[in-house]
Specification:
By secondary structure, this protein is mainly α. A three-stranded antiparallel beta sheet has the order 3-8-9. The protein has helices at about 65-70, 75-110, 115-165, 175-195, 210-215, 225-230, 235-250, 265-275, 275-280, 290-310, 315-330, 340-360, and strands at about 30-40, 45-55, 365-370, 380, 385, 400, 400-405, 405-410, 420-425, 430. Helix 4 packs across helix 7 (about 235-250) and helix 5 (about 210-215) packs across helix 7 (about 235-250). It is built from twelve helices and ten strands. Keywords: Coiled coil.
């Protein structure tokens, strides 16, 4: 039938009667609102809520009668009111549940920390304090280590000073070194003027010996040959002096000839232990004052032991004769006068140089013979050079043509201190023509 209504399931209320004046045909509306709330035992799980609404859906809309112009009867209105009231109750219940849920969530977030949380916080604070204490201790230990290192260095310096003083290093004053150097210069100058001054009696039969190549060719600048000076009646003594000084610096000074037969062994040991910049001046090795001081202390101590253990007077006579023979082979062709004292005068120059080297070797300070330079062009510097006797002051930026004798430079003190300071004791003697 067209007007028949499907019946609801078990427990549904009876169908309201149909009226001919109303076209409203409606199924029975059954409202069942069930609300179940359950709180979990753990506050972390929050609140569970379940809203269940069960009602059969009508086949037609409630406002269908209004569209057809009919009026609801009392039963229909009663069911409509029940629907509206149930809907309002559901909405109020839903709102109340949501409010409860929000309150529970807020309460769960604001609840005080648990005991485990407090324990972790306490442990973290303890660890933080221990770390800060360890960092403070480390900084304090670093400061103490640095202070200890400084005190250790100071003690080491004082110990070295005490050792040098207790060992009684040979004390050589600057005045004494200057006096010995000046005397040696005078002896060489007198020898050169006596035997090589004036006119040549005959044309020289010169030889290019090994000593010529080593010590004669290096005396002059590249612009003037040594023969120019050797043939001059005025300048020949100057170049003879230059030759002899270069020979002495290379073969006598710092070679320990005063040690006799032990000189070669001592020289080789010193060359092995000597700081690199002393052995090879053209190298890039930087000067280290402390390294130099240690070597000089060792050298002075070993020299003192040599003096105590052997006869070191004058050096080897055979070796000196050998040196004199090589010198004469090079310079004798340019002699202006000759006598029986000539060889003895050369030997005396060697003895004076060996005696001066012995005095230098016995002290701790480093003493060096310094030539102006090895450049092709050497400029005159008044602070470190002096002109040969009789020469007038040169013009500004005047070139040096001949280095007659080297300068004498000292580094450190006889007590074994202050190796950073250099002191020029004797300036180099030069000639600009």
């Amino acid at each position: 039938m067209a007007d028949s209504i499907d019946q609801p399931s078990h427990g549904a209320p009876p169908v309201p009667p149909k009226h001919t004046s109303s076209i409203l045909s409606r199924d029975v509306v059954n409202f069942n609102v069930q609300v179940s709330m359950s709180r979990s035992s753990s506050p972390e799980k929050g609140v569970k809520s379940q809203l269940v609404t069960t009602y059969p859906v009508p086949d037609h809309k409630l406002g269908e009668s209004a569209d057809s112009g009919g009026l609801l009867d009392a039963s229909s209105q009663d069911w409509h009111l029940r629907f509206i009231n149930a809907k309002k109750s559901w909405e109020l219940c839903e709102e109340e549940l949501r409010s409860k849920i929000d309150e529970l969530k807020a309460g769960n977030d604001n609840r005080p920390p648990s005991e485990a949380y407090h324990e972790l916080q306490s442990k973290l604070e303890v660890e933080r304090r221990l770390r800060e204490k360890a960092e403070d201790d480390l900084r304090q230990r670093s400061i103490e280590v640095e202070e200890t290192r400084k005190r250790w260095k100071q003690a080491a310096r004082e110990l070295d000073k005490c050792r040098s003083q207790s060992q009684g290093f040979y004390q050589v004053t600057d005045h004494y070194l200057i006096e010995l150097t000046t005397q040696l210069r005078y002896n060489i100058r007198s020898f050169a003027i006596q035997y090589f001054g004036g006119e040549l009696r005959k044309k020289p039969n010169c030889k290019r010996t090994d000593y010529w190549k080593l010590f004669m060719e290096s005396t002059t600048s590249k612009t003037i040959a040594p023969e120019t000076y050797l043939l001059s009646k005025i300048k020949c003594p100057s170049i003879i002096q230059a030759f002899l000084w270069r020979f002495l610096v290379s073969k006598i000074f710092d070679n320990f000839r005063w040690a006799g037969d032990a000189s070669l062994s001592f020289w080789e040991l010193c060359r092995f232990l000597r700081p690199k910049w002393q052995v090879d001046r053209s190298s890039d090795h930087s000067r280290n004052p402390e390294t130099e001081r240690k070597f000089q202390v060792w050298s002075a101590t070993t020299t003192a032991l040599l003096f105590d253990s052997m006869d070191t007077e004058g050096g080897s006579e055979e070796y000196k004769d050998f040196l004199v023979s090589n010198i004469r082979e090079t310079i004798d062709p340019y002699l202006r006068s000759r006598d029986s004292d000539y060889p003895q005068e050369l030997l005396r120059i060697l003895d004076n140089a060996i005696a001066l080297d012995k005095e230098i070797s016995r002290q701790v300070a480093r003493v060096e013979w310094v030539f102006p330079g090895t450049k092709e062009k050497i400029m005159y510097i008044s602070a470190s050079m002096e002109l040969e006797r009789g020469e007038k002051s040169p013009k500004p930026d005047q070139e040096v043509l001949l280095t007659i004798s080297p300068g004498l430079q000292k580094r450190g003190k006889s007590t074994g201190e202050d190796f950073k300071a250099e002191n020029l004791l004797v300036p180099a003697e030069v000639s600009w023509y």
